[in-house]
Design goal:
9 helices, Rossmann fold, 11% strand, alpha/beta, six-stranded parallel beta sheet, 2 domains, DNA polymerase, domain 1
């Protein structure tokens, strides 16, 4: 039986609620392109890279893909709108239960890491006061393949010096759960059970999360 030694957290939707900022920015871009972008469609963008998300947006709008130059321009525009919001973030934006759980993990000598497809992870962690808290931070600036590819989680485990089978991943996206399973890691889904049905455990949030839940995954 593999002993759990490290916890890897997705950032958006698990540590902080930036998911709404992503949705607002993609919805605004969709409106400019002439169609409505729903919350249900937004679920498919969670954990996916910016360029892949843009291609999905075009698919939802039933539009032909633009040139690479135009794709880059639109992705940058979306990210600028998103960054306007995250630059206003404070420690008050940390989701309920997160701070207590992180402190409990540290006190029990678990390694903790961020495994996020976001290229803005460093900015967000700085704004919420956690820039130097995690033992490793692997984000979209360090990977070539976004979730459901396991690269982000395997790199996080490698930076921690922990075998993948000794890691648990906390994720709010189906693509993230799939990535963690490909990496042979245990999984805790945070959010909707219907979306996160593949996870080993699903919880609505981290309000009641504690180490006993982690130990039950051994």
């Amino acid at each position: 039986m593999d002993k759990i030694k490290a916890i890897i957290f997705d950032l958006d939707g698990v540590i902080v609620d930036t998911a709404r900022f992503h949705y607002q920015a993609w919805k605004r871009l969709a409106q400019e392109l002439g169609f409505y972008f729903s919350l249900e469609q937004n679920e498919r963008l969670k954990g996916v890279s910016r360029m892949e998300s843009l291609e999905l947006l075009y698919e939802f709008g039933e539009l032909p893909l633009p040139s690479e130059e135009e794709k880059n321009r639109l992705a940058t525009k979306k990210n600028d709108w998103y960054r306007e919001n995250i630059l206003k973030m404070t420690p008050n934006d940390i989701l309920p239960g997160v701070e207590n759980f992180l402190e409990e993990l540290k006190a029990a000598n678990y390694k903790v890491a961020i495994g996020s497809s976001s290229k803005n992870a460093g900015t967000i962690l700085e704004k919420i006061g956690y820039a130097n808290f995690f033992d490793a931070v692997v984000d979209g600036t360090k990977i070539k393949n976004s979730k459901p590819d396991p690269e982000v989680f395997l790199k996080a485990a490698n930076e921690l010096g922990i075998n993948p089978q000794n890691c648990v991943v906390f994720e709010d996206a189906h693509a993230g759960i799939e990535a963690a399973k490909k990496a042979k890691m245990k999984t805790v889904g945070v959010g909707n059970k219907q979306v996160l049905f593949d996870a080993d455990i699903v919880v609505p949030d981290l309000k009641d999360m504690n180490i006993s839940v982690i130990e039950s995954l051994k």
